[in-house]
Amino acid sequence: MIIQENVPLSTITTMRLGGPADYVVDVESVDEALEAIEFAEEKNLPIYFLGTGANSLGLDEGFRGVIIRNHIKGFEILSETGNEIIVKAGGGEIWDDFVEYITDRGYSGIEAMSKIPGTVGAAPVQNIGAYGQDVSNTLESVEAFDTMLDEYVEIPAKDCDFSYRHSIFNSGETSGRYFILNCTFRFKKGKLTPPFYNSLQAYLDEHSITDYSPKNIRQAVSEIRAGKLPDPAAIASAGSFFKNFILTDAEADEAEKKGIPVYRSATENKVNTGWLLENAGLKGKSFHGFKVSDKAALILINESGESYADLKQAEEEIAKIVYDKYGFKIEPEPVIIKEREQHD
Ligand code: EPU
């Protein structure tokens, strides 16, 4: 267990903003995770759990508490039959390494989520998703430490209250309560079947790809993302900065009356915030050092923004332009590193 003091949040989050955290503790095993939690409890300091910092934002005042970073590694095959595998992955594994491990073995279920930045343990928190797949489709259970009851728990996926970018881990009274240690998934052999999400379908058509093996879909998604999304090592951003909208049928009818395209599927009606931003003329525009990406409008790039205050101003100005034109209140997707609200 490595303990560092006074670590700028700008150095541990991909948006590269924020003042110092009192402590950052890196843990590589369940035992170390428990020790780190004890360390914070002894000092009576709040805890914030972090993976690679790809979806968390640092405030200018920093964080008066202990940030615990999960580096618990390893893939363990719990069972494998002819066409099904159950795998437990360490919460600190890099998500895309896990996707590669699974697709290499011919299993389907997460291939469309290739190249999403971040860790396995962070994936259920906001129920990451891309191109029609999300984590809730294949997750079986999560092993976590419950900081409220001070005990180790196993939470089945059905109790995680998953929906679009939402789970018990990022909402309501349970937000920030659990430290996700390991995640167990179930995958089946096989291939996805078309029709695919529009941008993926367009890529497959253009490249005449008709074998939808997990490896081919992974390859296609990786190429789409490489062309559109910034490389976190080179460019500061937090992935998609704004959330899309899930609408009721009545709201969807209203949106269409205003000329806004709605993607209707069997399960949901969706308005793409990328479309709203693009059609409000925001692509490529900069606000207080933050630029709306000219390749994927949901991504906000930190070009020269120096503070969270700058980001907040940029966010508000962008949101106002979209609201004035389309009447949609767009909201940021990343979460702010701060003390969890006390409910106990
Ligand atoms: N669109 C535009 N202009 C843009 C971007 C999008 O008009 O600049 C419209 C287009 O109609 C396009 C549609 O939005 O067909 C969908 O765009 P895209 O496929 O780029 O996906 P997205 O809705 O912008 C979401 C996720 C991404 C995920 C992609 C692919 C959210 C907040 N974002 O973006 O996830 O990779 O779908 O499935 O749901 C992330 O969360 O960090 C992330 C990158």
Give an overview in words:
This protein is α+β, with helices and mostly antiparallel strands. The protein has three domains: 2-70, 2-Layer Sandwich (Uridine Diphospho-n-acetylenolpyruvylglucosamine Reductase, domain 2); 75-189, Uridine Diphospho-n-acetylenolpyruvylglucosamine Reductase, domain 3; 229-339, Uridine Diphospho-n-acetylenolpyruvylglucosamine Reductase, domain 1. The protein has seven helices and 21 strands. It has helices spanning 30-42, 95-104, 198-206, 214-228, 249-257, 273-279, 308-326; strands at 2-8, 20-27, 47-50, 56-57, 63-70, 75-80, 84-90, 107-108, 129-130, 133-134, 139-146, 151-156, 178-189, 236-240, 245-247, 263-264, 269-271, 286-287, 290-292, 299-302, 335-336. The strands form six sheets. Strands 6, 7, 8, 11, 12 and 13 form a six-stranded antiparallel β-sheet that branches. A four-stranded mixed β-sheet has the order 1-2-5-3, with helices on one face. The longest helix has 19 residues, at 308-326. The chain is globular, with a radius of gyration of 20 Å. Bound molecules: uridine-diphosphate-2(N-acetylglucosaminyl) butyric acid (EPU). Uridine-diphosphate-2(N-acetylglucosaminyl) butyric acid is lined by residues 130-131, 197-199, 239-240, 243-244, 272, 274-275, 278, 283, 296-298, 333. Uridine-diphosphate-2(N-acetylglucosaminyl) butyric acid binds next to α3, β14 and α6.
